[in-house]
Write a structure and sequence with these properties.
Layout lengths: L5 E6 L3 E7 L3 E6 L2 H14 L3 E5 L6 H9 L4 E4 L1 H10 L7 H15 L9 H27 L4 H30 L2 H11 L6 H10 L8 H8 L7 E2 L2 E2 L9 H17 L1 H12 L4 H22 L8 H8 L1
Parallel strand pairs: 1-4, 4-5
Antiparallel strand pairs: 1-2, 2-3, 6-7
Amino acid sequence: MKQMIYVGVDVSKKQLDVAIRPLGQAFGVSNDRRGISQLVKRLKKLQPVCIAIDATGGLEKELAYALAAENLPVAVVNPRQVSNFAKSTGQRAKTDAIDAAVLAHFAEVMKPEVRPLPDAASRELSALVTRHRQLVEMMTAESNRRDLASKSVRKLINSLLRSLKDQLAVVDREIHKAIAASETWRHKAELLRSVPGVGKVTTATLLAGLPELGELDRRQIAALVGVAPFNRESGTWKGKRMIAGGRGWIRSVLYMSTVVAVRRNPILKEFYERLRARGKPAKQALTACMRKLLVILNAMLRRQTHWSVPTPLLSLSVAG
């Protein structure tokens, strides 16, 4: 039988530390094009079952894309899960080489799901959506500072705000061009925008950051975004159910859409008011509406159906 090979790669700015199980091999290469090329060639010969890389805020992307381009099974894993796994095995020491060994062990035991990485067009759209969010955050921060600024400083802030506004307009145009260039994205955007409360920013964010929308069932998509509540019970004690994990940037944009939707979308408005009438706190009711909105959007893309009221889609979206 062919030996099952698992690889862990700890990524730092200048170095890639690699551990291979069960061969017990460990080595390092530079985190640049030359080092990545060397690593890819070496791993292609081994044909591993899984290559685990922890998410490091973007440093891992070039390596992950290079591995995926060669059809190697790469999984970008949550650092918190790996850290908890290390603690569960009694591993307290921490070096880059040890972290790589822990990642390889994690891949062998936990067998993280290997998901396809986004293509170049999806990465570009994602970068534009991220830049849009950054510009809005900077504009909000500068606007808040302007209220307490002196007259001379206020002029400087106003100048910066004008520049940021111009950049935001450019980013908006580039996002529109990117979506318009893809027939699939254009069609999905048309379906999503038909829902009251779902605007251009939410649509672009879902297209860029949630390609699984319309491909999974309602429970899977809710868990992926992090709007599926988890039980907290022990013996006779029952705590409040809470949401956790998932894709936080998607959840943030979905929350803002939900705030609009509970006023303008008749289905979500009725659902929100019914929850509040039953005594649910506003935040809890909004979270439930977030999940309902996500499930409806997922069902619409899966069935390729526009929003309409009334429609059998609404009852189907809750059931499936």
